[in-house]
Specification:
The structure holds 2 protein chains of 2 kinds.
Chain A: E1 21-22, H1 37-42, H2 48-51, E2 60-61, E3 79-87, H3 93-111, E4 132-137, H4 139-144, E5 173-179, H5 182-194, E6 200-209, H6 240-246, E7 258-267, H7 269-272, H8 277-284, H9 321-325, E8 335-336, E9 339-342, E10 353-361, H10 364-377, E11 385-395, H11 407-410
Antiparallel strand pairs in A: 1-2, 3-5, 3-6, 4-5, 7-10, 7-11, 8-10, 9-10
Chain B: H1 4-7, E1 11-12, E2 22-27, H2 39-42, E3 43-51, E4 58-66, E5 72-78, E6 85-92, E7 98-102, E8 107-109, E9 114-117, E10 123-126, E11 138-145, E12 150-158
The chains are: A alpha+beta, B mainly beta.
Chain lengths: ~400, ~180
């Protein structure tokens, strides 16, 4: 989860561009209406008098317009859906432009709590609940636009651990829709898909979730369905470190955007059940209890990879997920923003669960692939996890009011 | 009115303008020293859009707002997207059927009020498209008011499955 809300940095969020504004309909009226939601959320709501002043989370909006697209440095919402589309054969560069204008307008309106034009169910748009809509372009879309891909915008190399399924892989256009309300997500998804029908067909959808809004303190690192604290090492939005890891500064039309990797990681909960607690801790190199490294006591303690046990073995095993994913090269870092999934089990099974692994990085080839190569070679966690879907997209930069997402590529 | 055809650029603009609706210009045939607010200056539209269609008919929607202290009346609309444009209302006819037909006297926008043009209600009817209207294109309309002033705006084209109601004249369907 996005660490910007961590209590140890209560003032950090104020410095970031995407402050959450209260009240979608009033957000544009004036700065008077702008209140950092972090402040509101930290308000003590345990007394009835205070509870009355706590705003509805459904009213909270995330600005749509800006230098970067929302939904990347935005604290992850409770519900996310990922839609991958294939362009129709007849969709040309002009068609792409028309499509992105329509989709941008839909997103700009709905994220601010207003219904999209021609929405038959405008009543469903009234509670944005931090709705964000984020677009990513696949190499197919860029080719259709007659433009040049960033070098890293291509399918990931085949990894030995992969068991990829076409129905969860690739696609020309990614739409990531996320909010703290599942009805909001469903409605936004419906609206966007209706407006893609003249241009593209739906290739796959993946739906995921995190803890519900209000269940845990904002900024709490998410837990996956293995019970693990997942995402502790993320760079913190609003910092120079985050900006360096995430934002693309070099790739022409893609500058100001980021590289998106979406991988569907099946997690074998039944097999994981057979592993005892020390085994689980060793597989990751962190305690399942609180996410602390095996050499520490707090989640954010720096792991000590040199520490040895009494008989001379590393306390954090060489084969552990954390050890294998950690690089000495500071460039080889990513920003993770995934969602759990828990879908219908196949007949005779009781589980079909996993992680929609989503990560953002400026350059997938230089940042993500080296990490994934190491995990492919050795990571004890591979015993219980299997990548079954994989896609790569380039998020274009954000746009200002009157502009549209993709204008740097299509204008 | 007289100079409208030369003064106002009509047609479909694919790229020049923002998708978000913009009232581009208002024009007045009244002299500059006339102190009264013209209808063309008082009226604006928000959330305008047009239904996509391959050919035949389509319709334009949105919310018309009148910022003046007097009622204004839209007497006609034109666009290069259609060779014939009518202002329609949706009413129940003598057989109890809901039909759309040309509204007598035009759309009256009350003083400091607004009217909504929407599927199943009042709308600007494009009777005969001059070219296909594809989603994401933009259509420029010119409204003319009873004081002969005009208001021009653009509206994006959107795919929409509804707005297929019958018309009193000839039972036509917008999807035809």
């Amino acid at each position: 989860m996005n660490p910007r809300d961590r209590q140890k940095h209560p003032d950090r969020a104020g410095a970031t561009r995407r402050q959450f504004l209260l009240g979608g309909t009033v957000a544009g009226v004036g700065a008077v209406a702008a209140i950092a939601v972090e402040n509101a959320l930290s308000t003590d709501s345990t007394t009835p008098a205070m509870a009355a002043s706590v705003p509805l989370n459904g009213d909270v909006t995330v600005p749509f317009h800006g230098a970067h697209q929302a939904g990347i440095d935005t604290a992850a919402q409770t519900h996310g859906i990922f839609l991958a589309l294939d362009l129709l054969a007849e969709t040309d560069r002009d068609g792409l432009r028309r499509m992105m204008r329509i989709l941008t307008d839909d997103a700009a309106r709905m994220t601010q709590g207003q219904s999209a034009l021609a929405d038959s169910e405008p009543e469903l748009a009234v509670a944005p609940a931090r709705l964000t809509v984020t677009f990513g372009f696949g190499s197919g879309l860029v080719a259709r636009a007659g433009a040049t891909n960033p070098t890293w915008l291509k399918p990931l190399p085949a990894f030995g651990i992969d068991r990829l399924q076409a129905e969860y892989s690739d696609g020309d256009l990614l739409i990531q829709i996320a909010a703290d309300d599942p009805l909001t997500v469903a409605h936004a998804s419906r609206m966007m898909l209706k407006d893609t029908r003249s241009f593209a067909s739906l290739r796959w959808t993946q739906q995921g979730f995190r803890r519900a809004h209000g269940s845990v303190k904002p900024g709490t690192t998410m837990r996956n369905l293995f019970g693990q604290v997942d995402g502790t090492a993320n760079p913190e939005p609003g910092t120079a470190d985050f900006d360096a890891v995430v934002w693309n500064t070099t790739d022409g039309w893609a500058a100001g955007g980021t590289g998106i990797v979406v991988r569907r990681i099946a997690m074998n909960l039944d097999k994981w059940d057979r592993l005892d607690r020390p085994g689980r801790d060793q597989a990751v190199g962190r305690f399942q209890s609180n996410g602390a490294p095996l050499t520490g006591s707090g989640e954010f303690d720096e792991p000590d990879f040199e520490a040895k046990t009494a008989i001379g073995f590393p306390v954090i095993p060489e084969f552990s997920h954390m050890r294998r994913s950690r690089s000495h090269n500071p460039r080889e870092r990513i920003f993770r923003r995934g969602f759990n999934y828990d879908d219908n089990p196949a007949a005779g099974r009781i589980s079909n669960a996993g992680l929609i692994f989503v990560c953002f990085q400026a350059d997938i080839e230089r940042q993500f692939i080296p990490i994934q190569r190491r995990l492919d070679e050795l990571d004890l966690l591979n015993e219980w996890t299997t990548p079954i879907g994989s896609s790569v997209f380039a998020a274009p930069p954000g746009c200002s009011e009157g502009g549209y997402i993709g204008e740097t590529l299509l204008a | 009115m007289i100079t409208r055809s030369t003064r106002i650029r009509l047609g479909i603009f694919l790229a020049a303008t923002a998708l978000a609706l913009t009232g581009c210009a208002s024009t007045s045939t009244q002299t500059a020293d006339n102190a009264t607010v013209t209808a063309g200056d008082a009226v604006s539209i928000s959330d305008a859009w047009v239904k996509s269609a391959e050919s035949g008919m389509s319709a334009g929607f949105g919310e018309l707002t009148n910022d003046s202290d007097a009622d204004v009346t839209v007497v006609s609309a034109t666009t290069e997207a259609s060779s014939m444009v009518e202002l329609h209302e949706t009413v129940e006819n003598e057989n109890g059927e809901t039909v759309m037909r040309q509204i007598e006297g035009g759309f009256v926008i009350p003083a400091n009020g607004s009217i909504i043009l929407e599927p199943g209600g009042n709308h600007i009817m494009l009777m005969d498209l001059t070219a296909p209207l594809a989603a994401g294109e933009e259509v420029t309309f010119t409204l003319t008011f009873s004081d002969d002033t005009t208001y021009e705006f653009t509206a994006p084209v959107k795919d929409y499955s509804g707005a297929n109601e019958n018309y009193e004249r000839g039972d036509m369907d917008m999807d035809n």
